[in-house]
Amino acid sequence: MSGYPRFPAFVTITTSYNFFFMAPLYKVVLLGDSSVGKTSLVYRLTLDKFDENLPNTIGAAFLSKEHSSNEKTVNLEIWDTAGQERYKLLTPMYYRNAKEALVCFDLSCPESSFDRARYWVDQLKVLGPSDIKVRVVGNKKDLVDENEIDLLRIRDFCSENNVSLYLTSAKLSEGVVELFDEIVGLVDQDFLDNYVEPTDSIQPISLLSGPRASTCC
């Protein structure tokens, strides 16, 4: 039994408050198939916890966390989107105003999982904001021997599409904080200096969570 409460698919978590300074909002959207570990990555960052039995997100979950790196501070507005096929048509509305997209795949079944991650990279080119930064995240590195994974095809794809590749383990807390440190540390100074809070926002879809399913098929 987990030591922290279950969250429904529609949830807002704020992990830090500062009533004298409101850091600029910096929207990050997580994309990828079900069960690649998107929610686990966010929970590791925001709660520093891991639960193998987290249910799949249905709709979208919204979480926020103030994060500092390289003498820069932003309020990360993280959107954890559903990976099920039937929700693909809904996902593009969560791209709006996003500054970063993390396209996640499962390192324990890289062939099938990464092939589906390529779909999201292609979709972002067509439907994403013109200035969005895309990063590809291979999660579950604790389940594999990196020396036995053929990452050449994945690295070539990332190079051809001008996106960065990161290998993480939400379970072992490897590479997760470092990923978000890099995101925040590389935020454009012009964005911070000229920040204007958005007047419009997208609300998550409130639906019940479904059972976890395997993506290796």
UniProtKB/TrEMBL annotation:
It comes from the Eukaryota. PROSITE patterns: RAB, RAS. Pfam families: Ras. InterPro entries: P-loop_NTPase, Small_GTP-bd, Small_GTPase. One of its GO terms (molecular function) is GTPase activity. Keywords: Nucleotide-binding. NCBIfam families: small_GTP (TIGR00231). This is GTP-binding protein ypt5.
